[in-house]
């Protein structure tokens, strides 16, 4: 009876589908180790996963000069397995073993052509002078054996180029910019670039802000200030930015009325062309106890850059009245008076600032300022 039971157990286990059996973690086929590489462009993530063969073969033979057009055939090839036949040849899988895949967290442009967010099987049709890159909706197949052109989502072309020797097939990211990068396949003496660009990175950031402001990140006024200021810096989405700025000030749970939130709202209003409202709020902001001397000083410098010299002098005076014994507030008055032509008053405050032992950079500025003012010249 015991032997019969044992036979039933063994027979039953052998009949289990293979996918249900526990599997050992064995070395990868051909010792082609799995690899992955990830690059971000702000919130946008690009990930390539692949298995990496080497130039030297399984027995140590050097295959340099025999990779392209031989080990990796030019054009399409009959892989003699799966869907790949003489009448239905396949592209190259861009690596070894399983499908090489590429994942985009957001919509992108590849070689100038739009590609939706998602994970794709990555295939190539190599030629001597031009390669075709294929993005397939089938990202789970084993290699290119089951490649079906009907599953193509996008095809683009690119030019291969000579490269320094690379033993292991490698994907890397080069030419990294805030909204673009180049993914490159490098192997043996060749590199194949793929140019990727985010169509509108500013709108991607703003969409990300909307999500994050609804999370725990939004439980503090600074996140709302940062989001609004980003819109101001990029001159976009100003109506929503004003809502965010108001929220940073007025939200009952975490809203704060301080220099950061008030100046943020003033900046949004200024960007919207509502200058009178902006100036009124900014006047409140610079008088708030939270306004640091440098905050007020740089605001006044901004006014000077707009050629609002009288307004800037008024702000410098407010700063000085609050902090009369700081080098920066005395320097501010020196700048303000100098810009309005009162070199005598400017010289007085420049010398006062120098006497307050400023840091070396400010000291150098003041020494040059004093020389200019003594010669009857503006130093701004």
CATH homologous group name of the largest domain: Tetratricopeptide repeat domain
Described by strand count, sense and barrel closure, the largest sheet is: 6 strands, antiparallel
Indicate the structural class.
Answer: alpha+beta
Compressed to H and E, one letter per element, the order equals HEEEEEEEEEEHHHHHHHHHH
Helix content: 25-40%
C-alpha termini separation: 103 Å
The side-by-side strand order for the widest beta sheet comes to 1-2-3-6-7-8
Overall average pLDDT: 92
Highest CATH level, the class of the largest domain: Mainly Alpha
Number of strands: 10
- Count of all domains: 2
Radius of gyration: 33 Å
Question: What shape does the CA trace take?
Answer: elongated
Q: Helix segment count? A: 11
Task: Tell me the fraction of residues in β-strands, as a range.
Answer: 15-25%
CATH architecture of the largest domain: Alpha Horseshoe
Low-confidence stretches: 1-16
- The fold-level CATH name of the largest domain is Serine Threonine Protein Phosphatase 5, Tetratricopeptide repeat
3D architecture notes:
The protein has 380 residues and is α+β, with helices and mostly antiparallel strands. It has two domains: 166 residues, no CATH class; 174 residues, Tetratricopeptide repeat domain (Serine Threonine Protein Phosphatase 5, Tetratricopeptide repeat). It contains eleven helices and ten strands. A hairpin with a 2-residue loop joins strand 1 and strand 2. Helix 4 runs antiparallel to helix 5.
């Amino acid at each position: 009876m015991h032997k019969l039971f044992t036979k039933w157990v063994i027979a039953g286990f052998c009949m289990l589908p293979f996918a249900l059996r526990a599997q050992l973690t064995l070395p990868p086929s051909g010792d082609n180790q799995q690899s992955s590489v990830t690059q971000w462009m702000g919130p946008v993530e690009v990930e390539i996963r692949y298995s990496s063969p080497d130039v030297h073969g399984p027995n140590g033979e050097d295959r340099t000069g025999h990779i392209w057009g031989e080990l990796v055939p030019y054009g399409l090839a009959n892989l003699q397995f799966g869907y790949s036949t003489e009448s239905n040849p396949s592209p190259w899988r861009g690596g070894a073993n399983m499908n090489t895949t590429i994942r985009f967290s957001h919509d992108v442009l590849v070689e100038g052509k739009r590609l939706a967010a998602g994970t794709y099987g990555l295939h190539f049709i190599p030629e001597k002078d031009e390669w075709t890159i294929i993005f397939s909706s089938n990202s789970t197949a084993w290699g290119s054996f089951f490649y079906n052109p009907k599953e193509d989502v996008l095809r683009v072309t690119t030019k291969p180029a000579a490269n320094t020797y690379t033993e292991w097939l490698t994907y890397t990211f080069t030419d990294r910019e805030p909204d673009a990068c180049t993914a490159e396949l490098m192997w043996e003496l060749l590199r194949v670039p793929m140019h990727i660009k985010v169509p509108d990175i500013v709108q991607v950031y703003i969409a990300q802000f909307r999500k994050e402001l609804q999370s725990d990140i939004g439980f503090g006024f600074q996140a709302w200030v940062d989001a609004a200021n980003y819109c101001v810096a990029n001159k976009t989405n100003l109506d929503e930015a004003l809502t965010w700025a108001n929220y940073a000030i007025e939200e009952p749970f975490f809203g704060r009325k301080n220099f950061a939130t008030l100046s943020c709202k003033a900046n949004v209003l200024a960007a919207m062309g509502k200058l009178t409202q902006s100036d009124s709020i900014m006047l409140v902001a610079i008088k708030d106890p939270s306004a640091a001397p440098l905050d007020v000083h740089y605001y006044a410098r901004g006014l000077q850059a707009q050629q609002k010299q009288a307004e800037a002098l008024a702000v410098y005076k407010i700063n000085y009245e609050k902090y009369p014994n700081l080098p920066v507030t005395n320097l501010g008055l020196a700048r303000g008076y100098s810009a309005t032509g009162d070199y005598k008053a400017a010289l007085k405050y420049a010398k006062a600032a120098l006497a307050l032992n400023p840091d070396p950079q400010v000291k150098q500025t003041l020494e040059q300022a004093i020389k200019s003012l003594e010669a009857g010249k503006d130093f701004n």
